[in-house]
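User: My collaborator sent over this chain with a note saying "see what the structure looks like." That's all I know about it. Can you take a look?
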Amino acid sequence: MNNGSKWLIDPRATGVPTPAGQPPVSAPRRPDGWIPTAECGDPLEPLADSLASLPVYFRENWPGATSSIIVRREVNLRLQEAQRRLPPNFGLVVLDAWRSLTLQRALFDHYYADVKELPPGYVSDPADSKWSPPHLTGGAVDITLSWDGAALSLGTDFDSFEKEAWIDALERDDVKEPERSLRRLLTHVLTQAGFCPYPQEWWHFSYGDQLWAFNYGRQEAVYGPVEKP
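Assistant: Without extra context I'll predict from the sequence alone. Here is the result:
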């Protein structure tokens, strides 16, 4: 159950080095109650030119997918900050960010109506009145590292909904390198720029949504669902 197998490259095929000295990754806490939202009005805008994109859902012709990656302005700034923290020859590649309601419904229906054995927590229900799907807010990004321009799979493919894709799944004794250090590098630069990882997906990070608010000790999220401008 994944969409990204033909888009991301095994790091071993690229000759990517193992980045040394990366701190271990830990999963964020899940909210134990509802987190309200106070929309701050930060606008949506196209991804900065300095950031690479690979719009997987558009390339796979999902309903409502857009050819360009769209994010909140503050997210754009923080992604550029994160990229500046990377070692030479590494970059960031954004696979998905803001989603239309049509795309979110299509993904949810596919994975939870058509693929009935999928556990909860992978694709948010667009009909949920309390927990806003992170991608509808424009604050969530699906993202990976690149090496010399090649977008890398970090232990699994994008949208591989399995335990090995959990953010801390490679923090075990049976070390898997260079994937473990690459996943640590991605997580480190993004959390240093203020993003919150997602427990079940190494590629998903968010700023301003409800999970971010809870883990950063905020009383409210600053981003709610928005329509494309």
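A starting point for your reply to your collaborator: The chain has one domain: 37-215.
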